[in-house]
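Worked example 2:
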Amino acid sequence: MPVDISMTILSVILMGGNYLFPADIVHEILGLALFLLWAVHISLNQIWYGAIFKGKYNPYRVMQTFTNCGILICTIFLMISGIILSNHIFTFLNIQGGLGFARIAHLLASHWYYLFMSLHIGLHVGMISNNINQPQPTARKIILRILLVLACAYGLYAFIARGVWKYLILRQQFFFFDLERGYILFALDYISIIILFATISHLVATRLKKNR
C-alpha cells in the first residue's frame, strides 16, 4: 500500500512536466524514483508475473493482465525516452540523436501510463467499495455516492477540457500547461480523472467477477 500510494502521488506530480519545478533535474530525479518504485512493485508481485502464462483465462483475468501489461510497457517506454531526453542524470551515456522520437514517445507513454494506472487502481479498490456497501446510515451512503458521481462527472470534464484524449492519440504533440490556473487545479483535474477511470474499471471488474 505505501508503495502504491507513493507511485500514484509521484505520477500526478510528474504529469505536470517541468512546470512545477524551475529546474528540470527535479523532474528527472522524481522520474527515476518512480522507476525504482516500479522495480520494488514488480518484485513484490513477481508471483503474479510468473503466472501470466499459466492457468485459464476468464474475462476478468484478461482485463487484469491487459491493464497490468499496458502499464509495464508504458513504464519501459517512459524510462527509455526519459534517458534519451535527460539533461543531467544520464548525460554520461552520451546518447546522440533520437530526441524527436523520445519526446513523442514520452508524451504518448506518459498519458497512456496514467490511463492504465487509473484502471489498475480500479481493480484494487475493493476495500473502499466494501466500506461504502457495509451497513451504515443511509444518508452517509447517499452522500458518498453523490460525491463519487460528482467527482466522476468533473473527471470527465477535466479529461476533455485538459485535452488528455488528444495526447492519447497524438492529436496534440506538445504538452500544454495552463499557468493561469496553477498547479493545484491541475492536480485536482488529474486526480478526478483517476477517480473517473478507476470507478469505470471497478464497475466493469465487479460485473466480470459476478458473470464468471
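The mean pLDDT is 89. The chain has nine helices and no strands.
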